[in-house]
Design goal:
Mean pLDDT: 82
Strand order of the largest sheet: 3-5-8-7
Strand content: over 45%
Shape: elongated
Low-confidence stretches: none
Structural class: mainly beta
Radius of gyration: 32 Å
Number of strands: 10
Oligomer: single chain
Largest sheet: 4 strands, antiparallel
Length: 154
């Protein structure tokens, strides 16, 4: 074993080749630790049957159109829907509050109230503690303009 002597000030320091190799080995091991992929902890996964619902043609005179999104927790742990954001005041939603156990199903009920005529695509965003924490959902359709009845004496 080779020994290297260095003199610094008045105190001699002894460093061996083995000591340097050990420090180099430890540096490489801990330096590469950050590149290793660690498994993701188990989380809930919300899987929706459809991410878009077609409401079709709706008369502007209709008061409201109901829709339902069905989903299942396909993950390993329970998950909770925290809130659902809607893109405008013409859409209202409700859902069951509480934990959704693995393999259990649920639904998001909603109501769309037609406002102005034309095609529409409204977005809902589901916020949860699942693996994907923001899930966009859409409702689409066309609002037909309000038509006045033609008077008989015309």
């Amino acid at each position: 074993m080779k020994t290297i002597y260095t003199f610094d000030d008045s105190r001699p320091k002894v460093k061996t080749i083995k000591y340097r190799k050990f420090i180099l080995f430890v540096s490489i091991v801990f330096g590469c630790y950050g590149f290793v992929q660690h498994p993701i902890s188990a989380q809930g996964v919300l899987t929706f049957k459809k991410d878009t619902i077609q409401l079709g043609r709706i008369a502007q005179s209709e008061t409201a159109m109901d829709f339902v999104f069905y989903f299942t927790n396909t993950g390993d742990t329970s998950t909770i829907i925290k809130k659902i954001g809607v893109s405008c005041g013409c859409t209202a939603v409700s859902w069951s509050i509480g934990p959704l156990l693995p393999s259990s199903s649920g639904k998001i009920r909603g109501t769309y109230t037609p406002e102005s005529p034309g095609r529409f695509r409204k977005r809902l965003v589901v916020f949860s503690d699942a693996e994907v924490d923001k899930i966009p959902l859409y409702i689409e359709g066309e609002v037909l303009p309000f038509t006045k009845p033609i008077p008989k004496d015309f």
